[in-house]
Amino acid sequence: MFYRTQVLLGVCLIGLGWASSRTAHAQAGVAPPGPWRNAPEYVRLFAPAAAHTDAYRTYVSPLDLRILLRQLESESSLLRPPGAWAASAVLPQDAFGRTGAYDPWKMARLFGARRVMVARGPRGERGRPTEAWTLISPYPDRNLERLETGTLLIVLDLTR
Question: What is the domain count for the chain?
Answer without folding.
Answer: 1
